[in-house]
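Before the break, one more example. Copy the sequence into your notebook; we will annotate it together after we see the structure.
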Amino acid sequence: MEKTIKFGVIGCGLMGREFASASMRWLHLQTDLPRPQIIAACSRTDKSLDWFRRVPDTRYFYHDYHELLENPEVEAVYCAVPHDQHAQIYTDIIRSGKHLLAEKPFGIDLPACRSILDAMREHPQVFVRCSSEFPYYPAAQQLFRWYQEGFFGRVIEARFTIKHASDMDLNKPINWKRQLKTNGAYGCMGDLGIHTQHLPFRLGFRVDSVSAQLANLVPQRPCGDGFAPCETYDNAILLCGAHNAAGDRFPMVMEMKRMAPGCTNTVEYEIYGLDGSAKFSTEDANAVWYTRNQGREQAWSRLMLGQKTLFPVITGGIFEFGFSDAMLQMFAAFIAELCGEPCAFGCFRPDEALLSHQLLTGALRAYETGSVVRFD
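Here is what the structure looks like once it is written out:
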């Protein structure tokens, strides 16, 4: 009999649909992991719920998430709601005894994150992780493996970036991500920051200090028949002093930008070392660039990876890898960890989310005071 884990989805927007779609692609994985079944969906709008009526396993539809949590068939929940709702809904999910795959930034601010962690301590049997897809690109996984193997030697510096240009359209109406009450003071850092932090945190990079340049580039956006103020930051550049387990100290740059001309959703990871260096960009999604130190001259080489994935798939190795594939790999990592199966690169952990909030809170303070904020 096929093994399954029954999921509910709270928040049926863009990412909720991606999550459900990934569950329908489970046949692509060449593993014995239990198949996730999306049996319940919850949204405030009928339009969003109607899309989930196309998902064959989904048979429960709710407007109130409390009703979903009362459903004894639901074993785990994927929750994608605005940041101001994280603390309340995430803690309710945890206290209901259901496992949770949460969305970034895992609370609107540091106190909210800590309240979620408190609920976890009260219910240690509940498995909780946070969504982060981009480190599951094969090239990002290659960087991870090379680092574990000592490829880089002493680290010189590192850069982790996500940037897109959706807000370059100045006629784009305002949404919840531009408002303090729903997005929070982090602005783009809260929405995008974990994409820049998952890989370095998992490599053991830790931040000692941060200075920040933050920009709210568009003061207002269309809203109904008029305009509403944009209260959150569009772009952020963090210059961090960092160290690793080997004792190397190095600069680490994190960039999070919603207004990056020419970009769609470009993610870039770069690590430079005395022995070797490597870099990856989703603009060249199937390749990793690397160089080895051979003295006075170095040459960059382009290594094509294709479908060299963390969890084997039926897709031919010569074919391209994309975001939907990364979503499936992340989902598989969540299921593997939940079931206690081996997983070389797990989902973003709650303790890493706490590190993220501490960093972003420090970045806000650094920008507001024009100083460098140091961490113990």
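Residues 4-130 form a domain with the Rossmann fold fold (CATH 3.40.50.720). The two ends are 52 Å apart (CA to CA). Try to locate both features in your own notes.
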